[in-house]
């Protein structure tokens, strides 16, 4: 081990979310050995992977990235960015490289830039399936070669080893494709020989920045790791990191609050002890890491069609009293009309979902008060079809017919739905679904990834 302790700052939960200038200034004053920041996730659904589109705006990413590159230059420490472009596809890494070069030119910065690409070739994934190198995670859908080939993009979630590979090449700034959030923070400490238990638990704790503090906003934290444990404090002076705020973060995005799987093994926090050091700082000891067979989680998304939606509201008490049968009756008509106009069959070639917001739309069949009726309901009509023109055409006759669908309590022509927009149909474009929830057994921790490096400035 080269030092008694190592320190890191996690400036925000995701690049582009922002952070306070005074928090970053305080982080710089604490002289961390590493700055690391996640830039992506699957939390927002499959669209960003399927379409290779960043969730955060160019403006937001540029602002955060500029401040972190300047901080890195001032401190002369590694800056590690993971899951570039939200999903970590190759074009996301290239996009982040373009922004990095733009900032470096404008600010006169010089550094060595490393890039790690994690997008997978579909034919190689198919071959892994055939050779038994692909394993399904719990709840994973059934897959075959055709499903894999239909994926618009597949990424492998890297562990810390590819990042260490770039650090060993003396890269100052490292832009990663899809990466485990924790790997970004674990790479340098593990490279320097710190014990795996404290390192991985610290990395898990600070991966989302100040979310592990008492002020869960877009801001940062400072952490120190030693041979026995780690300490965490927020960069904002009005916030605190308490035993409860740190321990609760192990619940986030985990099926088990104590056992957290990484590519190289499992972090076990069952015997972790949390100790208050001050009003703002907490220390954690007792975490262990258990090495296991090496696997890489794969994420893949496929285009599921094209979508048009319409939003309307119903307040008529007679309609609300029989809302389910009212919607069911018009759905029968929609099926007949669709077959007449297009030859398509509803719920086969064309999907229609009608969600009742204000009644069961969020929980669905799990709603515990399903029979309670509000005084108004928002209806969301969602049409999914093989192409956008068909989705639009179907949505048009649905919105017109639905708005005037009769009810026995009223005689004559009625308008039962209030649509807030004209036209009510909203084109959503292509929609995607996740098709992989599997792990790859790689030849080595590095074999699934590609590496580039260059001198900037």
Topology:
Layout: E1 6-10, H1 21-29, E2 34-40, H2 47-50, H3 58-75, E3 79-86, H4 90-107, E4 111-117, H5 122-130, E5 134-136, H6 145-150, E6 153-156, H7 161-168, E7 173-176, H8 181-191, H9 196-206, E8 221-225, E9 229-234, H10 243-247, E10 259-262, E11 265-268, E12 273-276, E13 282-285, E14 288-291, E15 296-314, H11 317-321, H12 323-342, E16 351-357, E17 377-385, H13 388-403, E18 425-440, E19 450-456
Parallel strand pairs: 1-2, 2-3, 3-7, 4-7
Antiparallel strand pairs: 1-8, 4-19, 5-18, 6-15, 8-9, 9-13, 10-11, 11-14, 12-13, 15-17, 15-18, 16-17
Helix pairs in contact: 3-4, 7-8, 8-9, 12-13
Which features does this protein show?
457 residues; alpha+beta; Alpha-Beta Plaits; 2 domains; ten-stranded mixed sheet; six-stranded antiparallel sheet; 13 helices; 19 strands
Write up what this structure looks like.
- By secondary structure, the chain is an alpha+beta fold.
- It has 2 domains: 6-118 and 157-295 and 441-456, no CATH class; 303-435, Ribosomal protein S10 (Alpha-Beta Plaits, 2-Layer Sandwich).
- Helices cover 31% and strands 28% of the residues.
- The protein contains 13 helices and 19 strands.
- It has helices at residues 21-29, 47-50, 58-75, 90-107, 122-130, 145-150, 161-168, 181-191, 196-206, 243-247, 317-321, 323-342, 388-403; strands at 6-10, 34-40, 79-86, 111-117, 134-136, 153-156, 173-176, 221-225, 229-234, 259-262, 265-268, 273-276, 282-285, 288-291, 296-314, 351-357, 377-385, 425-440, 450-456.
- α1 links the parallel β1 and β2.
- The longest helix is centred in the last third of the chain and has 20 residues, at 323-342.
- The chain starts with 5 loop residues before the first strand and ends with a strand.
């Amino acid at each position: 081990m080269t030092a008694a302790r190592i320190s890191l700052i996690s400036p925000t939960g995701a690049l582009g979310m922002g952070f306070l200038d005074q928090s970053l200034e305080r982080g710089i004053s604490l002289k961390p050995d590493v700055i690391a920041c996640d830039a992506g996730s699957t939390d927002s659904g499959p669209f960003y992977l399927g379409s290779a589109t960043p969730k955060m705006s160019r403006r937001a990413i540029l602002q955060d990235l500029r401040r972190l590159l300047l901080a890195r230059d001032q401190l002369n420490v590694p800056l590690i960015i993971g899951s570039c472009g939200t999903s970590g596809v190759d074009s996301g890494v290239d996009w982040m490289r373009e922004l990095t070069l733009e900032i470096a030119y404008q600010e006169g910065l010089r550094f060595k830039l490393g890039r790690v690409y994690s997008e997978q070739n579909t034919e190689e994934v198919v071959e892994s399936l055939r050779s038994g190198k692909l394993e399904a995670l719990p709840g994973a859908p059934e897959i075959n070669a055709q499903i894999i080939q239909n994926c618009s993009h597949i990424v492998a979630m890297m562990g810390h080893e590819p990042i260490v590979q770039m650090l060993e090449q003396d890269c100052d700034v490292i832009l990663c494709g899809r990466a485990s959030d924790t790997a970004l923070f674990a790479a340098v400490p593990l490279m320097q020989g710190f014990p795996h238990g404290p390192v991985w638990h610290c990395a898990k704790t600070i991966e989302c920045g100040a979310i592990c503090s008492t002020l869960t906003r877009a801001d940062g934290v400072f952490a120190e790791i030693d041979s026995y444990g780690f300490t965490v404090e927020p960069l904002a002076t009005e916030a605190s990191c308490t035993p409860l705020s740190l321990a609760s973060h192990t619940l986030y995005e985990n099926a088990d609050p104590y056992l957290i799987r990484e590519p190289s093994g499992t972090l076990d926090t069952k015997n972790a002890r949390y100790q208050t050091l001050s009003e703002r700082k907490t220390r954690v000891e007792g975490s262990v890491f258990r090495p296991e067979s090496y696997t890489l989680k794969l994420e893949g998304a496929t285009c599921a069609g094209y979508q048009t939606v319409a939003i309307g509201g119903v307040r008529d008490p007679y309609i609300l009293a029989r809302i389910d049968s009212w919607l069911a009756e018009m759905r029968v008509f929609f099926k007949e009309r669709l077959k007449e106009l297009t030859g398509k069959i509803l719920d086969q070639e064309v999907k229609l979902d009608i969600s009742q917001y204000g009644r069961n739309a969020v929980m669905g069949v799990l709603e515990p008060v399903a029979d309670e009726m509000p005084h108004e309901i928002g209806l969301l009509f969602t049409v999914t079809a093989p192409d956008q023109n068909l989705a639009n055409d179907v949505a048009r006759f649905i919105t017109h017919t639905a708005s005037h669908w009769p009810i026995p309590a009223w005689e004559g022509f009625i308008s039962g739905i209030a649509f807030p927009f004209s036209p009510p149909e909203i084109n959503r474009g292509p929609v995607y679904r996740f098709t992989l929830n599997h792990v790859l057994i790689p030849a080595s921790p590095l074999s699934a990834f590609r590496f580039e490096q260059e001198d900037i400035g």
